[in-house]
Design a protein that fits this description.
Elements: H1 16-19, H2 39-49, H3 61-73, H4 78-98, H5 107-119, H6 124-141, H7 150-162, H8 175-183, H9 189-203, H10 208-212, E1 219-222, E2 225-230, E3 242-247, H11 255-266, E4 275-279, E5 298-304, H12 307-320, H13 331-343, H14 348-355, H15 360-374
Antiparallel strand pairs: 1-2, 2-3, 4-5
Helix pairs in contact: 2-4, 4-6, 5-6, 5-7, 8-12, 9-11, 9-13, 13-14, 13-15
Length: 382
């Protein structure tokens, strides 16, 4: 039995707009849209089927079946399910506009949809996500996925070839750029948070999602640094946990000093490390009285920041440091840490251990250009 009002269930996992939809009474979590259902109903059914609520203890076989379905929904990450819902909603809108059946869709319909989306200038990676979402939609509903058809495969292969373009990765925030960004940050409460966030993300080569999820329960202090336990990582799908290390440095880039300063200023002893802040309005004064200068006051949230906020923080301070803020994002911290390691001559095996990449092949995407730049075979003879 799935309980949306269970206090153990994160409220953020349910979109109120989905549950309050005028069509919600026509589609339930356990119903499968019949062949040829209205595209609107297909989209709503898929939304409901990809909400991963935690199941309550099962007391009957029916409840155990419902619990199994809930765990199947949780097999994919929240971000993946969110992206799939957006892709399926777009497909269903397109089907409604063109009088096509959304479920089960024919290979001709899927191929035409992908071609239409490609014609709108969507990136190949976005189309690949559309393709995967439609496959999952049909598998979830018990229909053979039309994406397996040679017609769709050939269409998608042609789109990849015709619309291929270089992947523009965000600029690495290497040491010299990192220092410039950090020096632009003031000693205000938001500044202390942003400084700690940037230096922690860089020192541990964290992904934005990992950085945003850090919690005090995962922090262990040592004389020479701080150990952070990541309960989940991209290459740790089973959630066994990965420990990363923040070394106690001796410069203005010390992540431990920055983190401890922020935690003390924000009086954080439990819960998320990095949180949203709201500036409070100035206190009221009597009409006609002169306002005396007062320091800004802030309210500190109880929930963690999101991954988009990590990107905004990096963009803000790189921009204020005189750099091109648009060229940076949250992943610039991880790329910058790895690139700085390459510049220091760190062996790729140590870089793999440091960054937590699953394979050397995936790490090489970060390392190749930096390695060539710092160790070009002809740099001393040209």
């Amino acid at each position: 039995m799935i309980r949306a009002d269970d206090p153990a269930t994160p409220a953020a996992s349910v979109d109120p707009a989905i549950l309050s939809s005028p069509s919600a009474d026509r589609v339930t979590l356990s119903s499968t849209p019949p062949a040829g259902a209205d595209p609107e109903d297909v989209a709503l059914w898929f939304d409901l089927e990809t909400i991963a609520l935690l199941p309550a203890p099962a007391a009957s076989f029916a409840e155990a079946e419902a619990a199994a379905a809930a765990y199947r929904r949780a097999a994919r990450a929240n971000n993946t399910r969110r992206a799939y819902r957006a892709a399926v909603a777009r497909f269903c809108d397109w089907c409604a506009d063109h009088g096509q059946t959304a479920l089960p869709a024919t290979p001709e319909t899927v191929a035409a949809f992908l071609a239409a989306e490609a014609g709108q200038g969507l990136a190949v990676n976005t189309l690949r996500l559309r393709h995967a979402a439609l496959r999952y939609l049909h598998l979830l509903a018990g229909y053979p996925p039309p994406t397996a058809s040679p017609l769709v495969s050939a269409t998608f292969a042609g789109i990849r070839r015709a619309h291929r373009r270089p992947l523009r990765k965000k600029t690495a925030l290497v040491l010299e750029l990192l220092r410039a960004a950090v020096q632009a940050i003031p000693g205000t409460l938001p500044g202390l948070r942003d400084r700690a966030l940037i230096l922690t993300g860089f020192a541990a080569a964290l992904r934005p999602s990992e950085l945003a999820r850090l919690d005090m329960s995962a922090l262990t202090r040592h004389e020479d640094g701080i150990a952070l336990l990541l309960p989940w990582r991209k290459n740790d799908q089973d959630g066994e946990g990965t420990t990363v290390w923040l070394p106690a440095g001796h410069s203005d880039l010390c992540p431990v000093a920055a983190l401890e300063t922020w935690l003390a200023a924000a009086e954080i002893s439990e819960g998320p490390l990095f949180r949203r802040l709201w500036r409070l309005p100035l206190p009221r004064i009597a009409r006609g009285a002169n306002r005396k200068p007062v320091a800004d006051r802030y309210r500190i949230g109880t929930g963690p920041i999101d991954t988009d906020s990590v990107a905004l923080v990096v963009k803000k301070w790189t921009g204020l440091a005189g750099l091109d803020g648009a060229a940076f994002a949250g992943h610039s911290l991880r790329r910058g840490a790895i690139s700085s390691g390459v510049a220091q001559g760190v062996h790729i095996a140590r870089l793999k251990q440091f960054s937590g990449h699953a394979s050397l092949k995936s790490l090489e995407e970060y390392v190749e250009l930096d390695e060539l730049r710092h160790n070009h075979p002809l740099k001393d003879v040209l």
